[in-house]
Amino acid sequence: MAPDRRPLSADLARIAVFAALVIVLGTVMVPLPSGVPITGQTLGVMLAGLVLGARRAPLSVLLMLALAAIGLPVLAGGRGGLGAFVGPTAGYMAGWVVGAVVIGLIAHSGRFTWWRAATGSLVGGIIVVYLFGIPVQAAVTGVPLDLTALSTVAFLPGDLIKATLATVLAVALHRAYPRAFPAGVAAPARAVGATPVPAR
Predict the structure, then answer these.
(1) Alpha-carbon torsion, ordered 122, 132, 182, 119, to 10 deg
(2) How far, in Å, CA of 47 to CA of 150, rounded?
(3) Which residues contact 161 (CB under 8 A, 6 or more apart)?
(4) CB atoms inside a 10 Å sphere around CB 198
(5) Predicted confidence band at 29 (pLDDT cuts at 50, 70, 90)?
(6) Which residue from 99, 101, 106, 109 is spatially nearest to 120, judged by alpha carbons?
(7) Residue 62, Cα to own-chain centre: how many angstroms?
(8) Where are the domains of the chain?
(9) Which of 113, 17, 3, 111 is nearest to 57 (CA)?
(10) Any stretches that span the bilayer, and where are they (predicted)?
């Protein structure tokens, strides 16, 4: 993979755009009795990982979390402040950062394809987030780990829908505007025998 030599200003703009996207998607929220709501923010994390790659995607998530830490209401339900980082959702937020890295690594491990995008979204956007979120939720709420894990079944259908939607949107964007993705990610050939364009 060729090194990505985008200007720093372009990188910062892309990181900020996806941080804003994660924030906006947080306005889509379905409260649950467990205290951990179903939100659209995971969809934003998946899209960030698929489009920005493993280096820039976590920075967009960290930017959003930094805004939350200073008290801005950027988390689902208009929450913000340091209290959110010691609540039942704290592990899921940490999982977003690591998940964004994993999504980017899988999706851009070779030529960008729908199955790499789907695998990245499923592994990084669901499994990794759950691995971080469930133990912290159990510890904060005092509910046994196995029961907490069982309660996450309510999230799974929505997360699978989000992974599917993220894959469809990312693949469509890659076909329409491959320059939005990390340099060196090959765009699909538009015709048989087409000469590949070298990465810049």
Answers:
(1) -10
(2) 27
(3) none
(4) 8
(5) confident
(6) 106
(7) 11
(8) 10-180
(9) 17
(10) 12-32, 38-54, 61-78, 90-107, 114-133, 153-173
42 burial level (CB within 10 Å; 0-12, 13-18, 19+)? buried
Separation of alpha carbons 200 and 168, rounded Å: 26
CB 100 within 8 A of CB 45: yes
Share of the chain above pLDDT 90, in %: 70
Which tokens is 144 given?
Answer: 């046994």
CATH placement of domain 10-180:
1.10.1760.20
Please name the residue that has the structure tokens 């990505």. Answer: 4
Over residues 145-166, the pLDDT tens digits come to 999 999 888 889 889 999 999 9
**Tokens representing 162?**
């989000």
State the DSSP H helix or E strand holding residue 99, giving kind and residue range, or none if neither.
helix 90-107
Q: How far apart are CA 149 and CA 169, in angstroms?
A: 29
Look up tokens 């060729």; give the residue.
Answer: 2
74-112 confidence digits (pLDDT tens): 998 788 999 999 999 999 999 999 999 999 999 999 999
d(CA 135, CA 137): 5
Amino acid occupying residue 155: F
- Residues 88, 136: contact at Cβ < 8 Å? yes
Q: Please answer whether residues 18 and 73 qualify as being in contact, where contact means their C-beta atoms are separated by less than 8 angstroms.
A: no
- Determine the pLDDT at residue 5: 60
